[in-house]
Amino acid sequence: MHQNTLEYALQQDKNDPLSYLRKEFHIPKDKHGNEWLYFTGNSLGLQPKRTQKYIQQELDDWAKFGVEGHFEGKTPWLPYHEFLTEGMAKIVGAKPKEVVVMNTLTTNLHLLMVSFYRPTKEKYKIVIESDAFPSDRYAVESQLNFHGYNIEDGLVEWNPREGEELLKIEDLEEIIENEGEEIALILVGGVNYYTGQYLDLKRIAEIGHRRNCIIGIDLAHGVGNVLPKLHESGIDFAAWCTYKYLNSGPGSLAGLFVHERHAYNKNLPRFAGWWNHNKDTRFNMRQPFDVMPGAEGWQLSNPPILSMAAIRASIDMFDEIGMDALRSKSERLTGYFEFLINEIKTDRIKVITPKNPKERGCQLSIQVKNADKKLHEKLINENIITDWREPDVIRCAPVPMYNSFEDVFRMVEILRKLL
Ligand SMILES: *Cc1c(COP(=O)(O)O)cnc(C)c1O
To answer: Does 135 sit in the ligand 1 pocket, CB within 6 Å?
Structure first.
């Protein structure tokens, strides 16, 4: 199968129909002009070269038109978010009516919980994965507190088994069987940020819905990485950021999904602002609130156009390439990465990410026995940017849009030497 040689890696890049994309990104360099081996697209995706042009266009239209840019700009600001909807819906496998770009991720989770976490005296608990991203945990805990429940009682953790790192769906099933009547919401990461495990969203939806639990998915590490097919999965809502695999710039706006079966329900409790009011009468300013149908009905404010311009640049790239082609390269690239790591003959290393490509995205989380943060610093000295998670895990994401087989080969060579 694979070969552990530079020639082989270079040949893979030659055969890769997507290798031309690397040139469309700014690859950071060290002070001698050598490109970094960048494996942290799961934290902040690199900048597409075209992004500057998209943002510049909005700056130009602002200079030229002032407030009239809302109507007169080449891409008018008033409906600007609509230019993102179709492309974003394709990336997550949703209908356009189910998706909107707005706010930031944690804000969206809260706004969605306003509508979908409606605890009662009997049914109020929230399930999260024990290794949930800290922000998600804080958000959920604060919702419990806000509604008058305490965390010890209200928060249910879905744990890996003793001595294991990955979650088992059977264990969620058992939680729901035992406590399902008391559980209002299951909120988990579609792809876990730490282990890289990609959960079966459809199964989770089936299990939860049997006992009338709402299913929310944090897709921060899944969007632009796996094919989550949100509509078909049947989950109730999801939210994600755009600065990781979606390459839309630090702190850029987030996305939100509300399944069609809820999207038209005007009776769902929610917070309001002028941007989820009927757009035909928005500027009459004197009309009583009339909520918009679809995911747009969760917006509050007129959005930051400069951030949306960067998202539009990125979505146009995803649209040109297609998620299927990206995912196909991703599986090969990560497969090669895994092969090379397994070639390092040491018992100090263990990949904790699932071996089955269907249960992971591009990220591999490598556990290194008896290592500490110094290993991470040594990697940085060798121009390798990875993400260190205490106590002993290196998270590495070879991103199919801009990472090469050569990157992966060189990275593992250096890791081998450092060990
Ligand atoms: C990156 C990430 C966040 C970050 O939330 P922000 O609101 O964008 O700061 C939250 N949750 C998960 C699972 C993440 O991966």
So the answer is: yes
pLDDT band at 274 (very low <50, low <70, confident <90, very high): very high
Tens of pLDDT, residues 308-347: 999 999 999 999 999 999 999 999 999 999 999 999 988 8
Q: Which ligand 1 atom is nearest residue 241's CA?
A: 8
The whole-model pTM stands at 0.97
Query: C-alpha distances in angstroms, 340 versus 1, 3, 249, 347, 351?
Result: 12, 8, 31, 14, 12
Ligand 1 pocket check for 397: Cβ under 6 Å:
no
Both 21 and 127 in one domain: the answer is no
Q: Is 243 in the pocket of ligand 1 (CB under 6 A)?
A: no
Query: Which atom of ligand 1 is least distant from the CA of 254?
Result: 8
Higher model confidence: residue 232 or residue 389? 232
The reply to whether 244 and 355 lie within a common domain is no
Separation of alpha carbons 215 and 108, rounded Å: 15
Q: What is the DSSP letter of 35?
A: B
Q: What is the CATH number of the domain that holds 25?
A: 3.90.1150.10
106 C-alpha to ligand 1 centroid (Å): 6
Cα distance between residue 350 and residue 345, in whole Å:
11
337 in the same domain as 307: no
**What DSSP designation does 284 have?**
G
**In this model, does residue 378 exceed pLDDT 90?**
yes
Q: Are residues 283 and 218 in the same domain?
A: yes
Task: Ligand 1, residue 220: give the atom nearest the CA.
Answer: 15
pLDDT at 283: 83
| 232 & 210 share domain | yes
Measured CA distances, 306 to 57, 58, 215, 316, 380 (Å): 9, 7, 32, 16, 32
CA–chain centroid gap for 120, Å, is: 31
